[in-house]
């Protein structure tokens, strides 16, 4: 099944085949999504002697976390909880009671990466009450909010939060509120046939070792789900913005905002609210990777171009991290997206009168009209603070992004003329206009 051109499909399959052969992966599945629909599936290797298909299940590991996070954000949108609530308000009795829901979602709570005891990914899990009873002060590794520190334990606690607020197992919450509405009926907490078996590949010989697979109890929310290429393609479309009735688009956009970065000044990788972030060749990608013993998976979506990519493999390690991004690059090189056609719109006379240059002190800015009475204010020279604004019922405009996100822009008419008041910053039609209400006044002798 392919909705890409033949030469594109060949290039994509070649990249997948190289990965499967050179990285020695028992089986490898991949897909590309464009405008919410599957554009290409690719498969290499064998599962029980046959090539994998769009319906073959693989374990997806930590991609589970994003699905749990969506269910938590639904609670927030319903008013059941606030992201600034401490965990103790909803799950009392843990040593992590002071950390907030937002910190747990963004891995900034400072909790240990793994729960106490044996390596949870290779051993059967305990129920939530046993997990919580075994936690002590040693689970805190960093001051909450100080830094990014990935925590599987944190998502185990979020799974219990879901269970308590909905009065049902968290797996049922995610299934009923997220997976089924998206048509992801082949995404399950336990494997179903046909599914790939997980293997470790010997580092120096072409032989396999079966990896263990268990129900991980309370830790399952950190990475237990199984899914298929077809289902995960629907998830890639969701992350890219095709939310259906599951989540408000504004909430998903909030989840994709960087809450923290995990690679310092470079900011090539970061984390939002249950969603990993990456910058790649001018793209800003959102998604998540997943790994469990015997399995690797990754989903990335680029909302700006409305494309997504995924791969799924049944090997503990070895798949190159660049694979998914390489597939996106191949698609862009062979079939670059066309920009939307420009069509004329409409603008009210009162807004047209505001367009053009404005000055914040000596700095020139340009005001443009956007659809539906929106405005954009951008520095004329490209350097400075730029924001878009949306009209409000009271006649003001609310900042959507940049420095002025959440701030109010007012158009003020006075006997001296008109000026813009942007949260105490005054913009006038002339640089330091003598008749304008410039804070601190303007030198009476003017420019010289």
TrEMBL record:
Residues 20-326 form the Beta-lactamase-related domain. Residues 348-429 form the DUF7586 domain. Keywords: Hydrolase. This is Serine hydrolase domain-containing protein. Its EC number is 3.1.1.103. Pfam families: Beta-lactamase, DUF7586. GO terms for molecular function: hydrolase activity. It comes from Microtetraspora glauca. Coiled coil: none annotated.
